[in-house]
């Protein structure tokens, strides 16, 4: 079953399978299935065509995938353009939400393998 250009995993329940779509988490998936009157425990292969169409119709009202990514990048660009503190942190690829950077923040700053030593070198044996 394909929705919004994403193939849903066939072996998972619908409330879990919908989370494969960017912008749909567990609570949103449950809400979508409730509105579409589809059982949470059904798998994508077990859905009838009416149920598939109902889920698609509800998902069309949500902002997911490309639209959501476009909006997020536009928001970040706006922060950079107005030169806000958060925009500067985004531009410098540093943590935006006040986390410390003396230690940690390796995933945001990159170079995951590099760590600081104690400052003292080991003696070489001759």
Automatic annotation (TrEMBL):
One of its GO terms (molecular function) is structural constituent of ribosome. Gene3D superfamilies: 1.10.8.50, 30s ribosomal protein s13, domain 2. Residues 99-112 have a biased composition (Basic residues). This is Small ribosomal subunit protein uS13. Residues 87-126 are annotated as: Disordered. Keywords: Ribonucleoprotein, Ribosomal protein, RNA-binding, rRNA-binding, tRNA-binding. Located at the top of the head of the 30S subunit, it contacts several helices of the 16S rRNA. In the 70S ribosome it contacts the 23S rRNA (bridge B1a) and protein L5 of the 50S subunit (bridge B1b), connecting the 2 subunits; these bridges are implicated in subunit movement. Contacts the tRNAs in the A and P-sites. The gene is rpsM. Belongs to the universal ribosomal protein uS13 family. Part of the 30S ribosomal subunit. Forms a loose heterodimer with protein S19. Forms two bridges to the 50S subunit in the 70S ribosome. HAMAP family: Ribosomal_uS13 (MF_01315). GO terms for cellular component: cytosol; small ribosomal subunit. InterPro entries: Rbsml_uS13_C (IPR027437), Ribosomal_uS13 (IPR001892), Ribosomal_uS13-like_H2TH (IPR010979), Ribosomal_uS13_bac-type (IPR019980). PANTHER family: 30S RIBOSOMAL PROTEIN S13/40S RIBOSOMAL PROTEIN S18 (PTHR10871), SMALL RIBOSOMAL SUBUNIT PROTEIN US13M (PTHR10871:SF1). One of its GO terms (biological process) is translation.
